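Dear colleagues,

I hope this message finds you well. In preparation for our joint manuscript, I am sending the Major facilitator superfamily protein (Paucilactobacillus suebicus DSM 5007 = KCTC 3549) sequence together with its predicted structure, so that both groups work from identical material. I would be grateful if you could confirm receipt.
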Amino acid sequence: MYALWIGNFATGAGASMSLPFLPLFISTLGNFPKWELTLYAGIAFSVTFLSQAIVSPLWGKMADRTGRKPMLMRAAIVMTITATLTGLSPNVWVLIFLRLLQGAFSGYVNNAYALVASEVPIDQSGAAMGTLTTGNVGGQLIGPIIGGTIAGIFGYRIPFYMFGLFMLIASLITLFGVKEDFVPPVKSKNQKDQSAFAGVKQIHVVWAMIISSMLIQAATNSINPIISLFVKELMHNSGNIAFASGIVAAMPGIATLISAPRLGALGDHIGPQKVLIAGLLLSGIAFLPMFFTTTVIMLCGLRFVVGIADAALLPVTQTVMTLDTPTEAISRIFSYNQSFQAIGSVIGPMLASAVAGILDYRYVFLMTTVLVLINLSVVLWAYRKDGVKLKLKH
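The corresponding structure tokens are as follows:
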């Protein structure tokens, strides 16, 4: 578990130290007008998650046959290669292709969770999952700050080389430090043919959680293609833009790290439904004022609030799915959820790039506010729908 914590930390830090500066890196690969730059940035961000959404179920099936450690090694080694080559990209199309390839072979963090869940004693699973989460979130927290400092001094290619180095470390740690006692499960023909949703009681709620995961990812990641460009505009193209972008990118991670344990305990006390709805309301309250942001400090503060909302959203959606899903179907339900999260990570940046290119960077925040309102409507509808059914049964 400690080896996987290091691997999760390396993955989170490596990815986050390079991604916030991807638009700035793309701007050095050609003389692009604003609309074209935002379009390429959106494609470069989204294409990774698009390939991940398509390929993820296939890797899941293979993990059931071969175990999770081979999947961890596959993800770490390929990401070592693709991250390093991305730093060597001669033009934007090579960069986009490498991002596509990286998404198709990624999945280190998800497989780390799956391996620990399958190996750890049931009465210690909560603590183990919490420990793994701090590794990934901790990496995402310091990654943008380190990457921003390095990019501001040495240029935008260096963080990608460091991402490759971090994944090489993760590969070695996983190879020598991770042990898996894997026994391929024996399934009957009926189990294979049965739908993953066959035994789900509150079907509308579970689907609402899956859709909610997609919309949360779309809203949260929508700013990624334009974050450094918007910070550049707020700073009037002067000062260490890369470092400031790194701080802005790190704000949600700081908030999530602080608030996630408390919000998890609150959900156990008052119920996950209330925490989820409160998180959606808080998210909308945070995104809307970003339209009127005039300084980087204001943007940092609002991004911190978004991080608190995120801490109340994604973990709660997974908790609700776990409570409402039979044990034998949890893995398949979660694979659907992961694919929908990846789809959200495609939709958000692409919509943001289109909005920013046609209108302005600020209008992206109005778009994310609309996504949050749609999400809230879906969740309320699902609870009302299944709530009526449960009352009829009683």
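For the figure legend, we might mention the following. The radius of gyration is 21 Å. The chain has two domains: 1-180, 195-394.

With kind regards,
E.M.
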